Amino acid sequence: MKTGDAQAPIGVFDSGVGGLTVLREIQRQLPNESVLYFGDTARLPYGTRLEEELLQFVREILTWMTQQRVKMVVVACNTSSAKALDVVRAEFPMPILGVILPGARAAVQRGRRIGVIATPFTAASDAYRQAIHEIDEAIAVWQVGCPEFVPLIEQNRVHDPYTRQVAQRYLEPLIQAQIDTLVFGCTHYPHLKPVLRSLLPPTVQFVDPAVHVVRAAARELDLLGLRNLYANRTARFCVSGCPESFAQLSQQWLGYLPITERVDLTAVTPAISTVRAISEGIASRIAPLETSE
């Protein structure tokens, strides 16, 4: 990309409001950057989706973001990062960052007994354990799938007594394992931080991968000469579901009521068969390079 693209927005997407934790970190760490945020609220939660279905969703979103001329995409969804990231990086022209590897690196720097709370899909993928053990095989890792967390957050039930009961049930095996570090293996989960903090020993440290993926994004922007040096920050919010519901739910974390647009991905993206054909063509061209290394 040319340095003239530096004022283009950074794309951020998630199944719902979880990725707002990444957006807030971009605004804190990269105050000049504009953000295009997409929440796939019509199809959440992602954590119980089939892998092929999930990959189709990610392809559709990235195709749309390419049309919006973003300069980089942060996949603010652990589930998508776990299963789709390596595939779509070979199919799309812009840098695409996921949250798992930055989160794993940060966790290794914090503790030796690491717990990961995640969607069932991310937990079953074993992505965090693999990423942590690539850095240090001696670290103990426990992963717990938490299917009820995302729906409860999206229903604005963070402070509901039932949510506390659910959290206590999910955390029990991690408390028994005497973890010293807890990784938020879903970008929704930092919204539950007060609840989780009240249930865990005070010595347990939290790792929010959103903080660390934005640091990685900053380094990538500098490397590519794409960091925006001019104060021109904007945020555009788009969803596949109800804009009003997303805006109302987001207000408590953004501090303002965001103007939110509805986007019909089926109207702006090519058929998935076409996308697959393109990706297969790209894969066939890069395969010799991969096998020769």
Automatic annotation (TrEMBL):
It comes from the Bacteria. It holds the Pfam family Asp_Glu_race. One of its GO terms (molecular function) is glutamate racemase activity. Its EC number is 5.1.1.3. Keywords: Cell shape, Cell wall biogenesis/degradation, Isomerase, Peptidoglycan synthesis. Pathway: Cell wall biogenesis; peptidoglycan biosynthesis. Provides the (R)-glutamate required for cell wall biosynthesis. HAMAP family: Glu_racemase. Belongs to the aspartate/glutamate racemases family. This is Glutamate racemase. It comes from Thermoleptolyngbya sichuanensis A183.
